[in-house]
Amino acid sequence: MKRFFFNLHLIIGLCSAVILLVLSLSGTVIAFEPELNRLMHPELTKVAVTGPRLSWDVVKQRVEQQAPGWKLSRFYFPDAPNDSTYVRLRSTRTHRIRQIYVNQYTGRILGSTEDGPNLLIRIHDLHVNFLTGTIAGHPGNIAVMAGTWSLLILSITGLILWFPRKVFHFHWRSPGPRLNRDLHMSLGFWSSAAMFAFALTGVGLHYQTGKLLDLLNRPSNATFRPGHGTSIEAMLQTARETLPGAEIPRLLLPEKAGDPVFLYMRFPEDKTPAGRSFVTLDAKTGDVLSVGSSRTAPVLESALVQYTREIHTGTLFGAPTRILAALLALCLALLTLTGPLIWINKRRAKLHGRRALARAKHSMMR
Question: Hey, what domains does the chain have and what are their CATH numbers?
């Protein structure tokens, strides 16, 4: 049976090595994407505090005036007064998405990281869809999912193969091939749970894409209470009263008729940027349709919906888990390099043995 797992591990590892190497290195970078983005684009992400901010309804109106043919569909509210506001626009003609930064004190569009070449966007796009499209069935989507499923299988088969050999013993002074083999086995064993978690949550995120709001906004979460109206400020007030003590990091406006207004909510104990709670409002009346609180949500719902993204991105407990996720992503890169090297070293050893045997036979025949 171990021979079967060995061959399975070997074949899948060799076939998926390049994809997994790309995903691991790009994942290490995007673990710190917000900080890198602020560092690389201070002219977009920072604003001068010149007085009280405009109402969000005025900000929306001014943005749409500066961008004819586009409608503001999402607010990503700033965490600090001198942070700019990140918003998403949708074309009224082509439904194309554009993400821009806005000065909330003047309503002026500052620009977009999508304008011109942007390394961070390319790296993010590489990690998510291999640069070839986010639609299911596109080559990039297939490649990422193939790599994710491969990692899931590799984490299980590797654990079976590596335990207990070389798990608790490691010799830094071993010869190169032996050292490489020991490193792969030991590192693979101790990181197997993390690799399994990366893969499982990656698969979960793939199947959640486009369905997250449906998963959260279920009849079991239904609750009704009158709102304060349909203006942005009125809906924010309704959400704050519905979940007292929670901040509102994001607001999603309806993209088609019948969709609710969706507000992400974050309690002080939540370290993930988007929070783990939500409120949905009727777009026509502003009344509350449903509520989900991280303080009262069922464990299964939290695990399947909220925690999936947080575990995968390392935002579960803020900066410490993001650093840990980046280090584990580097471990995956190391595994994808040392694994094929084991196979290459074995091939070289066999070839060297055959040549030595051939030379010995030739010497005996002389």
Answer: 42-112 (3.10.450), 212-313 (no CATH)
